[in-house]
Specification:
By secondary structure, the chain is mostly helical. The chain contains three helices and no strands. Helix 1 packs antiparallel against helix 2.
């Protein structure tokens, strides 16, 4: 039997879950950056992967953390882009209000 219900996407107010997801998404890139630095700069390498031998963990973990940081970077670029867009809009409004 076919269900004829309307499957529309409702525009909801932001919830606590969405706010937390946004902040967690923003926290990922700096966290992976710190892990990459720790992994590449410590003599044992592999900060989070202690069970692997140091000679294997040194390069692999640092590269993995760098790649994960790059994957999560668009969240920051979007945030910066929205901030610059708002700044341009507010400056445009301020310039239009000035007497000629």
């Amino acid at each position: 039997m076919h269900d004829n219900t309307n499957h529309t996407i409702s525009l909801r107010k932001p919830t606590l879950e969405l706010a937390l997801a946004k902040w967690i998404r923003l926290a990922a890139a700096p966290l992976f950056g710190v892990l990459a630095c720790l992994s590449l700069l410590t003599p044992s390498g592999g900060v989070a992967c202690i069970s692997t031998p140091a000679e294997f963990a040194f390069q692999d973990m640092g590269v993995m953390y760098l790649l994960m940081g790059l994957v999560h970077l668009p969240a920051w670029l979007t945030l910066i882009g929205h901030g610059l867009e708002r700044e341009k809009t507010s400056q445009g409004i301020a310039n239009n209000d000035a007497p000629a």
